[in-house]
Amino acid sequence: MPDFRHATHNTVPPLVDTQSHTLVLGSMLSVKSAEAKFYYAHPQNRFWRVLSSVFGVPFSQTVNDKKFLAKYYGIALWDVIESCDIIGSSDSSIKNVKYNDIVKLLFDYPRITRVFTTGKKAAELLKKYNADYNNRIISNAVALPSPSPLNCATKFDALVEAYSVLKIKSDVD
Description:
Elements: E1 5-8, E2 22-26, H1 31-36, H2 47-55, H3 63-72, E3 75-79, E4 81-86, E5 95-99, H4 102-108, E6 114-118, H5 120-130, H6 136-139, E7 142-144, H7 156-163
Parallel strand pairs: 2-3, 2-6, 6-7
Antiparallel strand pairs: 1-4, 4-5
Helix pairs in contact: 2-7
């Protein structure tokens, strides 16, 4: 039986600034993302390619370009979980969850009025987290399909269509 690892999020802060209006939450950093200290860092994860397609910009593999892309379009990134026990990067194995303080993040960045999750597990965990807070913004969170390479049932074009909700009217053009 595979071993659980204790995963923590303490080395990767939220990617957010005062212009952020949309928060996209994953469940927990993958092994590759934790190693790279950056979100969706696995080379086969489709998140950054999808985001590039949504906003009609060339895909770049550099971390600085990815940060710029997210911030330019008002997208903040974080994860629901601060720490947990997990086998590899498998969301289905997550246990002993300690949550990130998402309500505080929303308080600190009041322009954020929309929340999305990248997958069912992140949505499920966010709902459990919000049960203690009943935060209106979190209550209205929308679950998007996972961009993980493990979610091969959702084709790239379908991901782009789903993630197009990240655009807001002022960003179109």
